[in-house]
């Protein structure tokens, strides 16, 4: 079961079925709720998914919202049927509010998209009341169109192209035409996300740009894939925000949903539409769902088209409400700074190889001189070899795309400690109290007076001794460098880890 963050009774559904078509010019969208219910949508929700249904469950309930519409309804500011749309949406807002107030999920079957003025207003108001004024509801508007025309920018005068502008306060209503829409019913444009846009009017584009509205067009879906788009959409909304999903069936490609008033080719596949619904449901933040613009009478060549569209609608609703636990494997994606990491490996490899080489030759020298081999010679060789193995391990993990910061941090720490011990011992040998290497070198090698010249045994011996002294210096320099680099890799790993969360 998906745990719901904002509903008190998540298995209760408040149904609003609105047979209304006044937000646009084509008859037929008003028959959609009946068609959806007759296709078995509500029985599936109650019998298969286990919801308790409240509200408009009978196939005829959808007519009450449009009863007693004003007989005389001339345009206002270019809007067609303004009074009818205003009074119907007001009624819907009250219904949606009543269900949402109870902590139920609100499911609205439209109708054209103008009815979202009512559903969004009602749920926004309930969210404000239930969670305090500070909490704004987010709206995910899945649609081929932005529906954000103001009466002034609209070319058609159809209110189904304007709901977002009234809901966000871009367009102000007055008197009997949306005068009822108050401050507490508003939504913020910052919490609005569009998905599926591909037919946006010139005036709408300007509005979207000027208000910085988050919109994922079909271009974005092609570019990033629907999975990434949903991730970005929800990242924008944030995970502590109730979500109202308003799904216009024309977001789907006409191939999947041909029976709709304003079809636009090049849309979402049915599967992408389903994915959106599933994804939003999985957030546990869903408080309301609308399905609009299904118009069964617009079946151009055959009845199959209408049937398909209704079926697509049912599928969308089901997916946005399916109550099941999916095991979500959290996939981390760590972003390692490639250049730094490569530099680190290269420098550490050089330092380790140098140390191995120097101490291997020191051991040989001791053997030739028949001197005992001090414990720290093999110790250095071991630590440096471990470092080389660690680098090989990192390369292998990078190749497998499984370089976890924790592995790097633990490995880096262990090596750092070993490395530090080595560094301390070297320092003691170099500058320690008794017969230190450094003082011997300064005395007999670098400070030898006179320095031997010419091809003699003495010169060769002096050169051999100088090489040993220089090797000690190199070992110290690279030991110090390695220690610092090991500290650095731990910091780097921590940053990569912190970045991810
Ligand atoms: N919900 C819809 N199907 N809206 C279509 C809107 C089309 C156009 N932008 C208009 O303002 O008229």
From TrEMBL:
This is Arginase. The chain crosses the membrane at residues 343-365, 377-399, 406-430, 472-497. Its cofactor is Mn(2+). Coiled coil: none annotated. It comes from the Eukaryota. NCBIfam families: rocF_arginase. The keyword Membrane applies. Belongs to the arginase family. One of its GO terms (cellular component) is cytosol. It catalyses: L-arginine + H2O = urea + L-ornithine. GO terms for molecular function: arginase activity; manganese ion binding. PANTHER family: ARGINASE (PTHR43782:SF3). Its EC number is 3.5.3.1. InterPro entries: Arginase, Ureohydrolase, Ureohydrolase_dom_sf, Ureohydrolase_Mn_BS. The lineage of its organism: Eukaryota, Fungi, Dikarya, Ascomycota, Pezizomycotina. Keywords: Arginine metabolism, Hydrolase, Manganese, Membrane, Metal-binding, Transmembrane, Transmembrane helix. The keyword Membrane applies. Pathway: Nitrogen metabolism; urea cycle; L-ornithine and urea from L-arginine: step 1/1. Gene3D superfamilies: Ureohydrolase domain. CDD domains: Arginase (cd09989). GO terms for biological process: arginine metabolic process. It comes from Staphylotrichum tortipilum.
